[in-house]
Amino acid sequence: TIRSIGVSLPIQRGDDNYNATVSVSFRIRGTDTWRDALPLFRVRPEYLSTEDISPFPIGEQFAGSILDLQPDTSYEIRLQVQDPDGVNGDATQNLVVRTRNIPKSGPESPRIVAVSSSGALNQALSNARAGDVISIANGTYNGAVGISRSGTAANPIIIRGESAGGVVINAPGADAGISIKGSHVYVEDLTVRGSHWGMKVPADADDVVIRRCHILEIDRGIDGRGDAHTNFTIYDNVLEGRVVWPDTSDATWDVEGIAVTGSGHAVFHNTVSGFGDSIGLSQYTDIPNRAIDLHNNLVLWGGDDGIEADFGERNIRVFRNCVNNTHSGISMQPMWGGPGYIYRNIIYNAEANPYKLKNETSGFLIYHNTSVKGQIAWEHYSDRVANFTMNNNLVIGTTEPAHSSSEMVEHEIDYNGWYPDGGFRFGDLQVDNFSQLRNQTPYEHNGVLLKEPIFETHVPIPAQFDDFMVDPIDITRHSKRNGVAARRSESNINEDFTGV
C-alpha cells in the first residue's frame, strides 16, 4: 500500500513444532542502514473459525507487515529463516518492493472537459476517455450519475467539482448518487446527498480514488465491495449517515459508512458519523481481504463497530484511528489466520467493548492502543480466541478491568496498563485483583495498575453510554509518565518511543 508492505512466506514442509522463526529487516534501496521490523507471524490454520468458514484455502505460512513507510519508495527487504530442528535449515531471502504513491493531482496528459448542467455532465461521463478532467461548475445537479469508462494509471479519468461545498449531486431515492464501473477513476471535491448509497463501485475495479468529498443525508456511504477490487484510495472525506445517537440496535448493524473488499486499499483521514459500521471490510467476497490499511480516521459516533476489520485474511492494518461513541471500538470477528494489526488507536466511550474478537478469530496483534469506557474496561464474551498478542495498551474503565469468558489459546497479554483495580477473568482463569493476576497467573508479569491522574488533561470517563457523548479527547499521558514501566520495545512499532 502507500504506507505498508505485506509479506507471506509459505511453508512447504517441516516446522510441525512451530519453533521456526523469520526475522525481517528493511532499508530504503540504495542506503546503508538496515532497520528491524516485527518478525513474521506464524499463521495457525488449525485455529481457523469453524463458525464463519473461509471460502478460500489458507495454507501453512509465515506472514507479516513492514509499517509506517514512505510513499512511492523502493525498499530492500531481508527475510532470515531459522529452524532449530534443521528440517528447513537456515536461509535468507532478499526482496525489492516499492510502496504505492499518493494519488496524483492530475493526469500526465490532461484534457479539461468543463460542464455546468446535468445534461452536460452525463454526456461527459458517457464519452470520457483516459486523461479527461471533467470539471464541474458549482451548482446542484439533480439525479444520480455514473461512469463506465476507464482511465489508465498515467492518465486517470478525474471527476472534479469546483468546490466540495459548491457542487452537489442531489439524488433522492437513487440506489447510489455516483456509480463507478471503471478503473483508474478519481472522484473529488463534490457533495453527494439524498441517495441510498452515496457512492458505489459495483464492478471489479482497480485504482479508484475518492477524496475531499462530502456525503450526507444518505443511508450508507461508500460501497467498495467486490471480488476483485484492488488499490482503492479513499481519503479526506466527510460522511454523515442517518443513524441517530445513541441507537445501537440491530437495525444499525449492517449500515456501512465505508466498506471495501479485495486488496491493496488505503482508507485514511476520513471523518465519519451516523452509521452502524463506520469503516471496514465485508465478507461478501470469494477472494481474500489482504494488504489493507485503515488509518488516521475519525469516527464521531455510530451504532455498531467503529472499525470493522472482519473477514480479513492477512496484513489487515488498523492504526492511528480515533473511534468515539460506538457500540464496539475495533472488530476482528473473525480474522482468518492473520496477522491483523491494531495499533496506536484511541477508543473512547464504547458501549460494549474496545475490541470485538468473536467467531473464533485467530491471528492478530494489539499494540499501543488507549481505550476509555464506562463500567468494565474490557468485557468480552465469545468462543475461542487464538494466536494473538496484546501488549503495551492502556485499558481504562470504571468498575472492573477485564472480564473475558472466551477460551484463549496461543496468546500473550502483558506489558499493559489497567484501571481500575478489581477482578480479572481470562477464559477459565479468574482472580480478584491485579496483584493476584501478576503473581499467580501467566498474565501481566510486566504490566502495571494505573494510578490517577492518568492523563495530562481531565478525561471524563463515561458512567453510562447512552447519555454520554463528548467531542474527541486529548489522551496525552500525565507528566508523571504513568505506565512507562510497562512498555516493551517492538521493532517498527515503538523503538523510538519511551512509554505506553
Instruction: Enumerate the spans where pLDDT stays under 50 for 5 or more consecutive residues.
Output: none
Distance between the termini: 27 Å
Strand content: 35-45%
Whole-number mean pLDDT: 93
> What is the radius of gyration computed over CA atoms, rounded to a whole number of angstroms?
23 Å
Largest sheet: 13 strands, parallel
Total strand count, please? 46
Coarse morphology? globular
Helix segment count? 2
Query: Biggest sheet, strands in spatial order?
Result: 8-9-12-15-18-21-24-27-30-33-36-39-42
Q: Based on helices, strands and strand pairing, what is the structural class?
A: mainly beta
| Helical content (DSSP H or I, runs of 4+) | under 10%
